[in-house]
Amino acid sequence: MGTSHGSGTPPHKSLPNQTILGEGLIRQAVHDEEVAELLATLQASSQAAAEVDVTVAKPDLSSALREIRAQYESLAAKNLQSAEEWYKSKFANLNEQAARSTEAIRASREEIHEYRRQLQARTIEIEGLRGANESLERQILELEERHSAEVASYQDNIGQLENDLRNTKSEMARHLREYQDLLNVKMALDIEIAAYSKLSMN
Questions:
Q1: What region holds the IF rod domain (predicted)?
Q2: How many domains are there within the chain?
Q3: What is the value of pTM for the model shown?
Q4: Per residue in 138-167, pLDDT tens?
């Protein structure tokens, strides 16, 4: 009876108020029950008294009243005992529900704490991985830029070497032609000298 979890108020805050409200309802129910039974008893007694013969002696009326009072006191004592037992049972149930609610709240808090701890650990891990990823991306970008610069430098060097090679080939061809021309001149001179020598000997 008492601990509704759909009201939007945490159970550990609303439980004392609900317990007090339950106690008040129990007491009101017991009081209403006692009043109803007392009225029923008085009504029955009134009917019994109306049916008594008017010729009954006065001591008999006093005896009847004492008997009615004794019955009422016995009934009131029985009702009081029943009410106390009912109240104790309901109060024990409320205490048991409160204990279960408290345990459930404690378990929920521990679970929430564990989830928060895991979330914090995962967040730290993700931040670390994000930082490492950003560092790797910067390193890759730097390597790409350095590689591009080195490739451009190598291409410039290759172009320069190819140009030097062409110039060297052209220079060697020119020297080879000059050497061939000189060799031809030398051969012509050698032939001419040989001819003069032969003529001189004759």
A1: 1-202
A2: 1
A3: 0.36
A4: 999 999 999 999 999 999 999 999 999 999
